[in-house]
Predict the structure of Alpha-1,4 glucan phosphorylase.
Amino acid sequence: LALAPVTAPPASVDGFVREFLHNLNFELGVSLSASSVNDRYLALAQTVRDYLMARWLDDQRRLSEIKPKTVCYLSAEYLLGRQLDNNLLAARLTDVATEALAACGVSLEELREIEVEPGLGNGGLGRLAACFIDSLATMSVPSIGYGIRYEYGIFRQTFVDGQQVEQPDSWLRLGSPWEFPHPEAAQTISFGGHTEKYVDDDGVERSRWIPGWNVLAVPYNYMVPGYHNGRVNTLRLWRAVATSSFDLRVFNSGDYEEAVRAQTYAENISKVLYPEDSTPQGKELRLQQQYFFVAASISDFLENVLGDGVELEKLPSRVIFQLNDTHPVIAVPELMRVLLDERRLDWDDAWAITQQCFAYTCHTLLPEALEVWSVDLLGRLLPRHLEIIYRINEEFLEAVRERFGDDEMRIRNMSIIGEHPYRSVRMAYLATVAGAKVNGVAELHSQLLRDKVLPDFDEFYPGKFTNVTNGVTPRRFIRLANPDLASLITEALGAGWTIDLERLRGLEAYAEDPEFRAKFAAVKASNKRRLSDVLHVRDGFDVSEDHMLDVMVKRLHEYKRQMLKVLHIVTEYEGIASGRVAASAVQPRTFVFGAKAAPGYIMAKRIIHLINAVGKVVNEDPRVEGRLKVLFPPNYNVTLAERLIPAADLSEQISLAGKEASGTGNMKFALNGALTVGTDDGANVEIRQLVGDDNFFLFGMTEPEVEALWAKGYRPADFYQQDDDLRRAIDLIASGAFSDGDRSVFEPIVSNLLYDDRFMVLADYSSYIAAQAQVDAAYADQDAWTRSAILNIARCGFFSSDRSMRDYIDRIWHTPPVL
Ligand SMILES: CCc1ccc([C@H](C)CC(=O)N[C@@H]2O[C@H](CO)[C@@H](O)[C@H](O)[C@H]2O)cc1
């Protein structure tokens, strides 16, 4: 029976109506009149899926025939954001869907708002992975994103008396229409047990793993549609399911809990995302999660993509496993285990293959963020892998000795096995030894990796270290988040910029055109009104159109220095409250914060409390006459970012130089016409180089100056003594002015600033305040500000994640698009 190829339903309004009603009636089993909003949303999602399905199946068929080299992106996090709009855009269905639904008396807007975003990530690293897979699909690069289908994503943040309270993120509660479970492709993942030596039938002495327990990894496929190229790549997220769901014998013995204990224990593996984004807790469950998804992914690729009959020596020509930070690095000894123990290769062949199949991206500069696993825990959970890591390290140190002689200090510094404070495996070192390439995520970051974080390795492996500056997808963060700006750009430049962002350069000429400037200013103003409508419904906040919108949205971390922003606000407020500054002389500003703190990060949670406390006093103080406003909408996520960023005038990128690996919010703001006040840190450096000093408010120490001050001995209290504004601001916080006179509430923050201040907030204060005065002056000339905003957009095409993918392909992957 020659089966007709799968074809998409007719992309007409009638065709869409028919498909939608079919799904509502036959898939969801409700009539339109009886349907709930969620029913209609699920039916809509299924309908959009149907239009993308044909190309997805066709791609899978074509790729399985062509067998191209494939990028396997291994990431413990994917911060995907809402899917509906992006899939409608990719399938060119937005207008048809709007009309078809209207014909059914349904508003697309209403359904859009009910979608719960999959919060399967913490922040920058997770969102970057989502931007990257979007670009790979849009550029027709064969690739699979592998990760974990957490049942609970990043916690939902609420504020109680200004303090963060975490709520579980039950994102699957109302159904998850964009996923396709494939229990038939489940992989069995083993843990625990022991290893034993044996002699195989060729008389070769080998080691084998006798696991203690195992769990099933069930894959859920998600569509990753390319933009207007008819392509759909796959994101494969693994869910943990107990091999034996239920021990009837134990149950019949009446020990009901025991009967299901194995099940719950096993299924805990993919239960929840770890909400830390800098300090690993070293929890066993975290390591179980990491091994679980990488082992499932490697077996899945070898079995279902590579297939049988391929010489393993050819593996490097068929796949590159990109390690998204250290979280998936256990994949290295896992591939070795498969090649040695299952495919019976000898060590040298297995290692030669493995070294060509991996590449490692580092996303941090904070020493405490580099993961280490104790050999006790690793040996207990993954005894065979520890054996293999020891052997890798042995051979590596042998090579180091050959090169540098018996330099014990260097040997100890470079060993994958660290001795202090306890014997542990340094995952970043393992990734560097095994990876064909190691890259940082911005020029400055990659340089610091080579000079400061891994200098011995840079010396030992010439040419291994490279850089790929981060990027963001223009589909979600311009086309979808800022449709008015998108149509203004298309009107001026044509539509090609959405997949060729460097074309934005063409806007430079328009920056000189008063008419275009007026149109741009109108877009910014309407985005502010739209944001105000959203925040009014969401949190009861209103945004005043005549206020400069000064936005700082990112995870709460001391190195990102939300405290510097707080000191600026308190300085402005103190000036008015003390009567030294007339409120009327102050440039009206609304300060918007968005930030989640890792639940165990006490100082970060205190800073959130302080921001809300300062906001309450400033917003309610009549002397301020509404010139200053502080808004802190809770639960900052991708969806809120899409509303906030297009409305922003000023982007706060104020981390201490040498601490932010790159930043990606900085790119999104610049591409939406916000000006940046920032330090020379991460990708800020490259943004400033491209937009020009006149269009960037630079302040603060450079990384070498930070190092020099640290080396000289940093005494924050000196800055407090010498700077009146700073002293008055800190004294006001210390006085209890923002805590009903109770000095104890924020005392820990004040004393930390005065006697510790690891991220030199006080040292950069005066330079920051000076920069903010420049911002006020610049904003007074709206036309010049608008010109500068347009130049920021025009000169930031480089920060497309498509360009990042081209760099990865040229420098690391060598996986050309398959058109
Ligand atoms: C184990 C705990 C943990 C979890 C996540 C992380 C991530 C690496 C933290 C992160 O998201 N880093 C951010 O990555 C972005 C994408 O490259 C960069 O733009 C940010 O500068 C960097 O902080 C470190 C440690």
DSSP finds 33 helices and 25 strands in the chain. The pocket of 26W is lined by residues 122-125, 128, 276-278, 280, 325, 363-364, 369, 371, 441, 470, 660-664, 682 (CB under 6 Å). The chain has three domains: 1-66+89-116, 67-82+129-468, 474-805.
